[in-house]
Amino acid sequence: MIFSSILLHQFIAASAAANILFQGATVISFDEDAQSVQVLRNSSLLVEGKKITAIFPSGFDSPIPEDTEVIPSNGKIISPGFIDTHRHLWQTAYRTIGSNITLASYSAAKSPFVQHVIDRFQADDVYYGQLFGIRESLNAGVTAIVDHAHGTFTEDTADASLRASIDAGARTYWSFGVHTPLNNYTLDLQWQSLRTWAETIDWDATPVKLRLSFDEFSTVQQDVIDDIRRNIRDFNISVLSTHHLGGPWIAPNSPTLLNGLGLLDTDVPVIFAHGTFITPDDLNLLREHNHYVAISAESEMHFGHDYPYAHKAMDQAALAVDAHFTYSADIVTQARI
């Protein structure tokens, strides 16, 4: 839903109520029969529990449950929440220290895979970066986020990232960033963390979902790939996130490579972030197996990815923000670009 900051805070405060009525807003809806957007002015939207149960003109005499919290919404726009298909939420802390940076310099100085970043970020840093990143997203109308959570340098920072996501209460697909270790957080310990989270957290009580991200398909041994496949199956992981740029850039996790590893012909969606140099063969694989590229237009322009082939992937593309530390979490801007 798109709100002013004040209305968003009212919504968060009222969310403990069983029922909420947003009264007198302009509601952006969708006509399934006509397959077109509907703009419903001076309308009200009723939420009962966790579901939207009615949209009606404000003057319409519609039955409202007695315990309904009424939020006056005149002059506001309510729309379906936006979905951000690729983000690194913990990096909110990079605001002001990484706002003018190329991809090459980011990889050398700000990537989570350089030692001085790992040494400087503690669990609290990751927790608050994650929490504020989610709150900013909600304020920008983003209500579902695929978090490529690579601030997982240690067991403590990984726990902090997940805990902040749960505490924020947003619909976050927290994709645990598994990686070859740069410290004593070994792959075995990372898989142990995944098992602990999967088995001890009450996932039905939170909108957060446990997912997986990995960026080293081209460099690891087959046993690591086997572990990924097994853990996806054992822990019911239903999203796999990875970076693929192609061309002169790092992260060569192409659809062709993952297809050869047996990771495309499954019912687990794979999200390939950016894909700016994606090949025609790769695009054909995306279409054949129904996987998607997450295009973060503002980020890719900012970092200098270049755009030689991205326009050819529009039928298998979704929108993303990616590096919100350089600008806002606004999906509408990505759509306009």
Reconstruct the topology from this structure.
Elements: H1 5-14, E1 19-31, E2 36-48, E3 51-57, E4 68-72, E5 77-78, E6 82-87, H2 103-109, H3 115-120, H4 123-139, E7 142-149, H5 155-168, E8 171-177, H6 187-200, E9 209-213, H7 222-234, E10 240-244, H8 255-260, E11 270-274, H9 280-289, E12 292-295, H10 297-303, E13 317-319, H11 331-336
Parallel strand pairs: 1-4, 1-5, 6-7, 7-8, 8-9, 9-10, 10-11, 11-12, 12-13
Antiparallel strand pairs: 1-2, 2-3
Helix pairs in contact: 4-5
Question: Could you describe the 3D structure shown?
Answer:
The protein has helices spanning 5-14, 103-109, 115-120, 123-139, 155-168, 187-200, 222-234, 255-260, 280-289, 297-303, 331-336; strands at 19-31, 36-48, 51-57, 68-72, 77-78, 82-87, 142-149, 171-177, 209-213, 240-244, 270-274, 292-295, 317-319. Helices cover 33% and strands 25% of the residues. It contains eleven helices and 13 strands. The chain is globular. It has two domains: 5-78, Urease, subunit C, domain 1 (Roll), CATH 2.30.40.10; 82-336, Metal-dependent hydrolases (TIM Barrel). Strand 9 (209-213), helix 7 and strand 10 (240-244) form a beta-alpha-beta unit. The protein has 337 residues and is an alpha/beta fold. It comes from Cephalotrichum gorgonifer. Residues 77-316 form the Amidohydrolase-related domain. Pfam families: Amidohydro_1.
Short description:
Residues 77-316 form the Amidohydrolase-related domain. The chain has 337 residues and is of the alpha/beta class.
